[in-house]
Design brief:
The structure is a single chain. The chain is of the alpha+beta class and 443 residues long. It is built from ten helices and 15 strands. The chain has a four-stranded mixed β-sheet with strand order 1-7-6-3, covered by helices on one side. Strands 9-10-8-11 form a four-stranded antiparallel β-sheet, covered by helices on one side. β6 and β7 form a beta hairpin. The protein is elongated and about 140 Å long.
């Protein structure tokens, strides 16, 4: 039935073949697998990057969370790698790998059945960063074996029975920066672990590089074991060299490790249960308190209003009770008699009967203009005067009547408004004839 379903799914392509493969991975140990054309019975490669692969968990679009897939252009192959966690122990994972031939668009399928075996997690781990390699270079079993021999023969002899690579990842994926030159290596982070205690030589190396932990990178630093790694082609960043583990005998650790794992799982479940109990539960919408904006607006306007009313009351009281201090007798007298001044002035002016025909009254008053206006009148006492002449008028000198005019009967102008008898202003002084100079000006 399974093969039938696979065949139906491959009807739309040129050809489809299904291959099965069985693998095994261990908990806490690095798992690597190389996907190459030979797995699909493809032995020829006409063009570069001819084959492409897409692995995924069966019936799912992605891989397990602990597994990664990367394609290497250097090896023209894909690689699956990762470290199975403890919860995956005892389970079988089925992976589907779809291969595509880009030359003729032929598609083939590989079904990988992987069983995850239980294994005690190594408590003592040495962490390091290799700068002159990429992640794909540690897929080579020869390089991995050379790295193990450095610890098993020189630095950590007690770990020769169970030393293994427990973690491997590209430095770029772990937060590192790409190199400035494309020819340089990206770097790879590697962890090796064992149940054996750390050797005295590893402890001395730890103390030697401990002052470098505050630096982000120190490829320039040379240590006492520098030659050991460089002889087999490894150049380490000693700022990232650390030892993590517990100090206990190997035999006791081996027998008690299973119980310790159970205790860790029990503690993890207890913490998860506490998180679920302490999870925050939202309140319903009807229980959300409603904010009363009317009270807030009233409170916001009440206090300033009260302060304003108090200030207005204080200012009014000051102006009312202190009014007597602002009393000025001279000002009050002036404003009370301001209209009597006009009446007294009009009463003091002489009438027409008191003034003789030949007499004239001369009143001096300031003139704001440079042109002097002169009133000319005839000898008849009762004839109204209506003509005004200017001294700068050339016809004024030729008017004999105006030159010999007598002073008016009244010293004030009388408006021609009937019998109203309202005086506007005093009349100008009479003109007296004199001697004329060359320019026609009275001297």
């Amino acid at each position: 039935m399974y093969l039938l379903l696979v065949f139906v799914g491959c009807l739309g392509v040129a050809s489809c073949s299904v291959f099965n493969l069985h693998l095994q991975a261990n908990v806490g140990e690095l798992f690597t697998f190389k996907i190459e054309p030979q797995l699909f019975n493809w032995t020829h490669q006409v063009i570069s990057e001819q084959f492409r692969y897409r692995p995924s968990l069966q019936h799912y679009p992605d891989l397990p969370s602990w597994m990664r897939y990367m394609y290497s252009h250097e090896y023209h192959a894909g690689f699956l790698y990762g470290t199975p966690p403890v919860p995956a122990a005892g389970k079988t994972l089925n992976l589907d790998v779809i291969a595509l031939n880009r030359q003729n668009y032929e598609t083939r399928q590989l079904v990988i059945s992987m069983f995850v075996a239980h294994k005690f997690i190594t408590p003592n781990v040495v962490q390091m960063k290799i700068d002159n390699l990429n992640w794909v270079h540690l897929m080579d079993p020869g390089r991995v074996e050379n790295l193990r021999n450095i610890f098993r023969k020189d630095l950590w002899p007690d770990s020769k029975d169970d030393l293994s690579v427990v973690f491997m990842e590209s430095a770029i994926n772990m937060g590192g920066r790409l190199p400035l030159r494309p020819q340089q290596r990206e770097g790879v982070i590697v962890h090796v672990g064992s149940f054996a205690q750390f050797s005295p030589r590893l402890k001395e190396l730890q103390e030697e590089v401990r002052p470098l932990y505050k630096l982000p990178s120190c490829t320039y630093k040379r240590t006492s074991v520098q030659k050991i790694f460089e002889n087999v082609g490894f150049k380490l960043d000693w700022c990232a060299f650390k030892m993590v583990g517990i100090e206990s005998p190997t035999e006791v650790l081996y027998h008690n490790n299973h119980g310790r794992v159970k205790e860790q799982l029990k503690e993890h479940r207890h913490q998860q249960l506490q998180r679920e109990q302490e999870r925050w539960l939202g309140i319903p919408r009807e229980d959300v308190p409603i904010r009363n904006y009317i009270d807030e607006f009233a409170f916001a306007f009440a206090i300033p209003g009260m302060i304003f009313a108090v200030l207005v009351g204080i200012l009014s009281a000051v102006l009312c009770f202190q009014h007597q201090k602002f009393y000025d007798p001279q000002s009050e007298l002036f404003f009370a008699n301001i209209f009597n001044i006009c009446e007294e002035t009009c009463a003091a002016a002489p009438s027409d009967s008191d003034v003789d025909e030949g007499s004239s009254v001369h009143i001096d008053y300031p003139m704001s203009s440079t042109v002097q206006m002169v009133q000319c009148s005839d000898t008849k006492p009762m004839q109204p005067v209506t003509t005004l002449k200017s001294l700068k008028d050339p016809n004024f000198l030729l008017d004999n009547t105006s030159m010999r005019s007598q002073s008016p009967n009244n010293s004030l102008y009388q408006l021609d408004t009937g019998t109203s008898g309202i005086y506007a202003r005093p009349k100008p002084p009479p003109y007296k004839g004199g001697t004329l100079g060359r320019n026609g000006v009275d001297i």
